[in-house]
């Protein structure tokens, strides 16, 4: 077993002391990088890129070659599970993901089955193993999945949606059908994450990208309950991060699922989040991705404000720096250099000031 | 002066006792009603409909003819102010509002001037007066405006946006320019609402539709500070409702602006909102508009859950029932009948139960 040379990210997730605040970025391997676009072009399509373990490995490592990031994240799509269920994932340029066979009625729901991670999803496990080997212990590798509810949104809508009309019509009119979809999804997600961990993922993240579209009551019944179930069935030996976009009102409830870290978007003040969650979970976030559109000096000022809003972690607290959402394809790559540099240097300085203040 | 026959809505806003929970719906005069579509067709375009006081009056009254709603809201567009500033508002079918001359640089900002409500916006004041007369005291009339930040989003983006890249680039890179736009907008909004009140509006509402797109710090600096300024300059004699979509984390801060009521979207639990805000403000909301896609029985069950989450208003509290966002064009009109009926009957019953419980 190759030992991990930089375990700052894992220690922050476990709320152990770190010399600085670790940073990685959601969608860090992506279209803002010219080298990513070149590999994608070579692959022929986004799906071909996801389905080739070697190419997925190549793009996963690209941002690490440029920046001193403290974690790698598996390059894959959020919709691999429903694709493996046979819904027929495809992409239309500029329109995002779509399904050929969306789940619309009782018979569609009856046909759903949990995919075998060792069969239909073997390519993902292969990518995890390939990336883990290629990393050679440089930084930890994060695996991930969409949450049961978020997968259900795409499965029922048949793609992205502004108003979630189809999936919410089912939720309100036929909650029994929605629960059946979510039951299948929860089993699929826990098996999938388990397989990623077995293949080498050193932390996993659940993206509940559309939890924030639900009412308070519906969130608890249709999203949170299934996140909780995934975590229970997963019974993970590696840290689990749960990110609910737009979930700032529910931090205490999400923390109670037993996750190790809470991902939070930029609407949340990190100091307030820390006070609400206490030492139960580490917190990951939360720079507005659009702050990266400004000049390097402005980017750094915003990053410092995020670090200071959390404060020096101190005993039993953990902060992982990230954006509050995936990085935009329009981001100038030099913004990311400036960001990573200031997060490392400023957070190290905050710790030194804290130590010298406490030794007075 | 014609006396108001149904002042339930105004009493709830003032946190005075009411016999039942009043209800109105954001965008209640809209495309889900066949009679609205007929009038719009006659008008020729959406903008022509907004700019004709008689037709605006006609559509404002349409939902009141069908349903026992407790308030009317001026039919108008949220972007009348930037249109009056000369930015050239136009609509492309299926794409929402656009501006011919968006505000992109220093010289665009320098050209901005506060429109005269008695000149460029006289047609809105005429519509208010026409509707007020036509209502004949049946229910109160609500006037409205977009918030300074929400108007700025459209002005800089030149239309709707998924990521607010242009307006946020300006916010992060040139906060001085952003503050100049917001300064003009705040003066324009307070004069505009003042003119609507002078013309007959009996309550006014500020729609901060895009406040929830901001980080915690940016919300306070670029949205909330200007909402507060509008309220101060308006110095309103009629109740003021502030609705920040996605603003559930900031209810205490919004309540502190001095508004009379807080509009909340469906992610917020009304009981929790009431506990956080206390008796400082009434609360307006918050059924998920997509709940109206279900059958009348399901609609009624969801409406009861919203009423029960707030609880019987009791001394010093006020609840105005509404959706958590504008009604969808896909709403079956019979869902609205079922909703209005159950909100009135169930909320009256809740008050009776409360009285009999307290007299035990």
Characterization of the model:
The structure is a homodimer of 360-residue chains. With 360 residues, chain A is of the alpha/beta class. Chain A has a domain at 29-66 and 71-263: TIM Barrel (Alpha-Beta Barrel). The first copy, chain A, contains 15 helices and nine strands. In chain A, the strands form two sheets. In chain A, strands 1-4-5-6-7-8-9 form a seven-stranded parallel sheet. In chain A, helix 2 runs antiparallel to helix 4 (53-66), helix 4 runs parallel beside helix 7 and helix 9 crosses helix 10 (175-199). Chain A is globular. The termini of chain A are far apart. The model of chain A has no long low-confidence stretch (mean pLDDT 96).
Question: Helices, strands, pairings?
Answer:
The structure is a homodimer of 360-residue chains.
Chain A: H1 8-13, H2 34-43, H3 46-51, H4 53-66, E1 72-73, H5 80-87, E2 89-92, E3 96-99, H6 106-111, H7 122-135, E4 141-146, H8 148-157, H9 165-173, H10 175-199, E5 203-208, H11 216-234, E6 240-244, H12 251-255, E7 261-263, H13 270-277, E8 282-287, H14 296-310, E9 319-323, H15 333-358
Parallel strand pairs in A: 1-4, 4-5, 5-6, 6-7, 7-8, 8-9
Antiparallel strand pairs in A: 2-3
Helix pairs in contact in A: 2-4, 4-7, 7-10, 8-10, 9-10, 10-11, 13-14, 14-15
């Amino acid at each position: 077993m190759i030992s991990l040379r930089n375990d700052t990210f894992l220690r922050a997730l476990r709320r152990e002391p770190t010399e600085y605040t670790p940073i990685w970025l959601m969608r860090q391997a992506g279209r803002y990088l010219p080298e990513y676009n070149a590999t994608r072009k070579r692959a022929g399509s986004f799906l071909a890129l996801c389905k080739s373990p070697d190419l997925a490995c190549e793009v996963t490592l690209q941002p690490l070659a440029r920046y001193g990031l403290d974690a790698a994240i598996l390059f894959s799509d959020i919709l691999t599970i429903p694709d493996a269920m046979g819904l027929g994932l495809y992409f239309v340029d500029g329109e995002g993901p779509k399904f050929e066979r969306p789940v619309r009625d009782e018979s569609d729901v009856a046909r759903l089955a949990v995919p075998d991670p060792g069969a239909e999803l073997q390519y993902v496990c292969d990518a995890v193993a390939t990336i883990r080997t290629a990393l050679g212990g440089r930084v930890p590798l994060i695996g991930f999945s969409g949450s049961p509810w978020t997968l259900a949104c795409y499965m029922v809508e048949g793609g992205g949606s502004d108003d979630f009309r189809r999936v919410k019509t089912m939720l309100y009119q036929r909650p029994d059908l929605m629960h059946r979809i979510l039951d299948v999804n929860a089993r699929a997600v826990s098996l999938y994450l388990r397989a990623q961990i077995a293949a080498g993922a050193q932390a996993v993240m659940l993206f509940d990208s559309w939890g924030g579209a639900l009412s308070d009551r519906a969130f608890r019944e249709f999203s949170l309950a299934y996140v909780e179930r995934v975590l229970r069935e997963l019974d993970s030996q590696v840290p689990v991060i749960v990110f609910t976009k737009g979930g700032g009102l529910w931090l205490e409830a999400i923390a109670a699922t037993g996750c190790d870290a809470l991902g939070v978007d930029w609407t949340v003040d990190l100091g307030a989040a820390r006070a609400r969650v206490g030492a139960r979970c580490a917190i990951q976030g939360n720079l507005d991705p659009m702050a990266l559109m400004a000049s390097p000096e402005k980017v750094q000022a915003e990053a410092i404000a995020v670090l200071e809003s959390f404060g020096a972690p101190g005993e039993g607290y953990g902060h992982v720096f990230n954006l509050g959402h995936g990085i935009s394809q329009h981001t100038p790559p030099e913004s990311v250099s400036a960001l990573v540099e200031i997060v490392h240097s400023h957070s190290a300085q905050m710790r030194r000031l804290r130590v010298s203040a406490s030794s007075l």
